[in-house]
Specification:
Number of strands of chain A: 11
Structural class of chain A: alpha/beta
Helix content of chain B: 40-55%
Strand content of chain A: 15-25%
Largest sheet of chain B: 6 strands, mixed
Largest sheet of chain A: 9 strands, mixed
Distance between the termini of chain A: 35 Å
Number of helices of chain A: 10
Strand order of the largest sheet of chain A: 5-1-2-6-7-8-9-10-11
Number of helices of chain B: 27
Shape of chain A: globular
Shape of chain B: globular
Oligomer: heterodimer
Radius of gyration of chain B: 25 Å
Strand order of the largest sheet of chain B: 1-2-3-10-9-13
Strand content of chain B: 5-15%
């Protein structure tokens, strides 16, 4: 079946064990203010332009049949004399994606690596995800998710994975909603199911200065994770100032809503105190 | 602060520049008259020149310093009388500066046996031996005086001796002659001292660091294409002459010393094979992380059999090291000229497409024309290389395994190396023609030819097609068969040729500065390359391919046909420095390198770069005096490079 992805990254270093290829699924139900993959937010196709070399000749706009609402027709891509345009998120067959990744299967396996499904939010395209996943077996597979999905979808997908990498962006529902656009109730429900399952999982916290890098939030995150059956580790990802760089290339405005110049605090003690393995990436 | 840290700061602040002087006009003309005496043979003049040079050098000793020698004279007259050089050069083929370069000495033999055993009664060579001994004696260090005469006994003496020998080699007017297999020839001294408990591993590390720093003292005075291009390459690891694994404690000590020093010299190379443990790759990757552009890896599994195929004895092949950049040479025994020729593969393919496409009936007939054109070019260019003139080099001759003749006349191995540049762009041109003209027939011959003639003006759609969507090496699998065919065609074109010293021509995958020079003259090409655009360094995907992934790249570039194209020239991968920001990233990069070796890749060079840092260095060079980058076969200070080289480095893809 068909689905939408916006990239396949070879040699993803921080998406699970070993050497991995990561598939980025198009579309996300969250709108995190710090999102560093703005081209993955909408489910519909997105025009991405490398602006550094752009001559602003307007060849792209002049051929666009649908200004304002990208259909992914690719006319602009062909029109750009410097080849700076890429349509992110065309429809692709799961089999074609799998074939492309499997060309490097030997390299992935040899290193104890595999494939990670990221995004966007991979669980938004569950059937496509599960078909792609089955085509890639016996490779090690992992999903990297916000956890924002119906319980049924979350469980169905998680059970097929060798590893789940899940974000906990904030434990407070109101703050969560303010910075990501959605409530965290569903996420926490899925987390508590995951904690009781035997599926190996990692928790990720993107550390956003002044938003969730407080002792209080990280302590309550650690508390939430007490008693998990198959928690491998917690990974803290300090916010990177380059995160805003891509917005202009997809004609979006970057409005982080926090002070991007401050280095976030990477507080590991709450996890270490509870004998949880923690890494700052 | 310890001795080594002090030495690092001293160097960094260029305090030693105060020791230097230019000869006065009077001194220059006096010395010149004496050396360039038409009554003397060239050999005698070269020997006399070294003697005079060393006599004029001032002895500088820092308190506590163990490794001596600071160059105090910036330049010295050469051996030719007025008009003589021009006359010789006009009637000969001259490679680069017409002097012995790009070879490696028999350091093992000289360090163990000293110089006196190398006296043969040849006046010139014996003069150089006496001159170097006399120079060493001026340091009034008994251990050194003994070592230079009879050979070193201890690790420290061996290092002192190597420094004096190497310093004198530069003074003798040969250049880019490399440091060879340091961890092999130094190991007997190290091992003996460690076993006798005369030194600890920490002592050895400090000495090695001091030694490595000494290679940076005078390097700005040495000749090269750009600052940093000085051929002070060193090879670590590998197997011994019997084929046994020869990685030892010094291999690791050298990697650590280089990492601690963070200086561009010596340029570290590491020999590995399919059995090399991941731990060694990890240690080496920690060095890569420092951003100096080394180590550069060479794969014994591929290089050794390939050298044997070229006619090298198996024991010598196992002893290979690199020339200044990446060309494989045999220490002590080779007088190969591994960079004597360069063929622009992109230009050959482009020429064939422009001239032959309209009447070509199939892709095969195009490829046959490429083969013919390559053979014709190789034969024509090879003919231009004789008679070759190389200045006599009596002192370098003393340092060779067979020290009974002048090295400029040749040695056991006298092969020539030929760079093949623009390889990937050549493959991509062929792939585009094959796919669109012959397989799919979706583009007409006229359409492509007229687009090429007009630099794709008015053919934007075609340009976009061939530039972005056409099959590309490093991204699309249909290119690999073409890549193998082109490598084989390159090898076939050179294999019937012999040089005037009866050596073979070794095809290679290096580019050196030709990545700029050859690119300057390339017109529009069938892969969408436009005039003025750059070529990649060495054996790497085209710079037009911006969406290749490192896994596909290493799989594509580990070509079986490389066994026949083994002059040297690495796959170059640029890694964003954040990839290696923690141990997990370092381990995975190490695993990637190991994977390339397991796949049968020949040579690999990784750069940890940050585009942001490089761009900032363009704007604020004053803040980035220490920023070191890999240029082609060597690393240098980014801010000291010509803009054209800076541009090319910024164009390279970096994998995040």
């Amino acid at each position: 079946m068909k689905g939408r992805i916006f990239d396949i990254e070879e040699f993803a270093v921080y998406d699970g064990p070993g050497i991995r290829s990561t598939v980025f699924f198009k579309g996300c139900p969250l709108r995190c203010k710090w999102c560093h993959n703005p081209e993955g937010l909408d489910f519909s196709p997105t025009r991405v332009t490398k602006l550094q070399l752009c001559m602003h000749c307007s060849a792209c706009d002049s051929v666009c049949p649908s200004p304002g609402k990208c259909t992914g027709c690719g006319a602009c891509e062909k029109a750009c004399p410097k080849g700076l345009i890429r349509i992110a998120g065309r429809e692709v067959e799961a089999k074609d994606v799998a074939d492309q990744i499997l060309k490097n299967a030997g390299l992935l396996m040899q290193s104890g690596g595999g494939v990670t499904f990221s995004g966007g939010e991979a669980l938004m395209q569950t059937d496509f995800l599960l078909e792609l996943n089955s085509l890639l077996k016996p490779l090690h597979t992992a999903v990297e998710t916000s956890g924002y999905a119906s319980e049924n979808v979350f469980q169905r997908a998680a059970k097929e994975m060798d590893l789940v990498i899940m974000d906990i962006k904030h434990t407070d529902p109101a703050v969560h909603k303010e910075y990501t656009g959605v409530d965290n109730e569903l996420i926490l429900k899925n987390l508590s199911w995951l904690m009781q399952s035997m599926i190996p999982f990692r928790i990720r916290v993107p550390l956003i200065p002044g938003v969730n890098d407080t002792e209080e939030n990280l302590t309550s995150t650690a508390r939430l994770l007490e008693g998990a059956k198959a928690l491998e580790m917690i990974e803290l990802l300090p916010y990177h100032t380059a995160a805003g760089a891509k917005y202009a290339s997809v004609r979006k405005e970057y409005r982080p809503g926090f002070d991007t110049s401050i280095r976030p605090n990477a507080i590991t003690e709450p996890f270490l105190l509870r004998n949880m393995e923690v890494h700052v990436l | 602060m310890n001795r080594i840290e002090e030495a690092r700061i001293f160097l960094k602040n260029k305090c030693h520049h105060a020791y230097r002087r230019e000869l006065s006009k009077h001194e220059w003309s006096q010395i010149s008259k004496e050396i360039a005496d038409p009554a003397l043979s060239m050999e005698d003049r070269a020997a006399l020149r070294l003697k005079k040079f060393l006599e004029n050098e001032k002895i500088i000793r820092h308190p506590g310093e163990k490794i001596y020698a600071w160059r105090t004279i910036k330049s010295f007259p050469d051996i030719y009388a007025e008009g003589e050089k021009e006359q010789i050069f006009a009637s000969h083929y001259i490679h680069e500066q017409g002097r012995v370069c790009n070879i490696s000495s028999d350091w093992a033999g000289v360090l163990a046996g000293g110089l006196l055993t190398r006296k043969t009664g040849n006046r010139a060579r014996d003069i150089t031996i006496d001159a170097v001994i006399e120079y060493a004696d001026r340091y009034q260090d008994e251990a050194l005086s003994n070592a230079v005469r009879f050979g070193a006994k201890h690790y420290e003496d061996a290092l002192k001796l190597l420094r004096i020998l190497h310093f004198s080699l530069w003074a003798s007017n040969v250049y880019h002659n490399t440091l060879g297999r340091f961890d092999q020839y130094m190991y007997p001294f190290y091992k003996k001292d460690i076993e006798a408990k005369l030194i600890t591993e920490e002592d050895a590390l400090a000495l090695t660091e001091e030694m490595f720093l000494s290679f940076n003292r005078d390097s700005d005075l040495y000749t090269g294409m750009q600052q940093g291009d000085n051929g002070q390459s060193m090879m670590l690891g590998g197997v011994d002459r019997d084929g046994n694994n020869a990685v030892n404690e010094l291999t690791y000590i050298c990697l650590t010393a280089s990492l601690n020093n963070r200086r561009s010299d010596p340029k570290i190379n590491l020999r590995v094979d399919k059995n090399t443990p991941l731990s060694l790759f990890i240690r080496a990757t920690e060095l890569t992380k420092q951003g100096l552009g080394f180590p550069q890896y060479a794969n014994d599994d591929i290089v050794i059999p390939a050298l044997v195929n070229y006619g090298y004895d198996i024991e010598d092949a196992r002893d290979y090291t690199v020339a200044a950049c990446w060309e494989f040479i045999i220490p002590g025994k080779g007088m190969d000229i591994p960079n004597i020729m360069a063929i622009s593969l992109s230009e050959i393919v482009n020429g064939v497409i422009r001239e032959r496409l309209s009447e070509a009936e199939s892709y095969d007939s195009i490829f046959d024309s490429v083969k013919r054109s390559l053979s014709e070019r190789a034969e024509a260019d090879a003919k231009k290389l004789s008679p070759i003139y190389i200045e006599s080099a009596p002192y370098q001759s003393v340092l060779m395994s067979d020290f009974t003749h002048d090295i400029s006349e040749g040695a056991k191995y006298n092969n020539y190396g030929v760079h093949g540049t623009g390889f990937s762009d050549a493959v991509d041109q062929l792939a585009a023609v094959k796919k669109y003209i012959f397989d799919e027939k979706s583009v007409s011959k006229d359409e492509l030819l007229s687009a090429l003639r007009t630099d794709f003006e008015g053919s934007r759609t075609l340009l976009s097609l061939v530039r972005n969507n056409a099959p590309k090496l490093g991204r699309d699998d249909e290119c690999t068969a073409i890549a193998d065919a082109l490598l084989n065609a390159f090898a076939d074109a050179l294999s019937p040729l012999r040089n005037e010293r009866d050596g073979v021509f070794r095809p290679g995958t290096g580019s050196a500065m030709y990545y700029l020079w050859h690119a300057d003259t390339l017109p529009a090409m069938a892969n969408g390359h436009l005039p003025g655009e750059r070529l990649p360094a060495n054996f790497s995907p085209s710079l037009l391919v911006t969406d290749a992934g490192p896994l596909t790249v290493i799989r594509h570039m580990a070509r079986p046909a490389l066994l026949r194209v083994m002059n040297g020239g690495p796959l170059t991968l640029e890694m964003h420095d954040t990839v290696m920001r923690n141990q997990e990233g370092v381990n995975k990069v190490a695993q990637l390198v190991k994977s390339y070796i397991m796949l049968g890749g020949h040579q690999l060079q990784l750069n940890a770069v940050s585009r942001e840092t490089l761009e900032d260095a363009r704007i604020h060079p004053e803040n980035h005096q220490d920023l070191i980058v890999r240029v082609w076969g060597w690393s240098g200070h980014f801010v000291e490079l010509d803009t054209a080289y800076q541009d090319q480095i910024l164009m390279r893809t970096s994998y995040q």
